Fold this protein.
Amino acid sequence: MNIVIFGAPGSGKGTQSERLIKEYGLHHISTGELLRDHIARGTEIGKVADSYISQGNLIPDELMLELLEHEIDTNSQKTSKGIIFDGFPRTVPQADALKALLARRGSGIHAVVGLEVADDELVDRLVKRGLESGRSDDNIDTIRKRLEVYHRQTSPLREYYVSEGKYCPIEGAGDVEKIFGDIKRAVDTLV
Ligand code: AP5
Ligand code: MG
């Protein structure tokens, strides 16, 4: 079972992924965490990634895809029950590439969980987290840029997955455990 957890910056993708991993025994791939790990280790990829992330821009599709494919292939023994993709795909070319990449491995996406949260609340959450996260993109200017990039480049994927019959809209504001309950119900009916 492969699940995409989809939503704007701060919508709760990481928070709900933790619960999904435990519930379904899935392997978690967060492309944001992957990139932050490169930044922390000071790799060449990390240096390139930092220049995009700190400005609130997406890193180029080609680089992202290379990293993702490497991550899937080096963790193949951990992915037997499936993968939860957090923060990927973020563009239509990434979604097309993910479909092809999984098809080559005899698999596909089973459900796309879309966490829907109003922009004002997203800004509040991320500003609050920025007080202690240490993330270079958790400051008000970059938060606004990330939201603009989300609406322009990533939100079209909602329709992409609606048309494939895979999109499960979830109200992403409110109690974290209640949201998780809604996700479980949606996933269980779709897979
Ligand atoms: P990424 O790391 O994916 O960050 P993001 O999408 O901006 O989202 P966040 O991780 O900030 O939020 P989240 O949705 O995980 O929410 P969380 O659970 O943390 O990407 C970072 C950057 O990397 C991108 O901008 C881009 O530059 C690059 N990148 C990554 N993937 C890429 C790709 N595929 N292609 C190109 N570039 C890519 O929750 C947020 C806060 O809210 C937390 O404090 C949490 O405690 C709180 N919270 C959670 N749920 C609730 C709730 N129900 N009520 C109240 N508070 C809540
Ligand atoms: Mg996250």
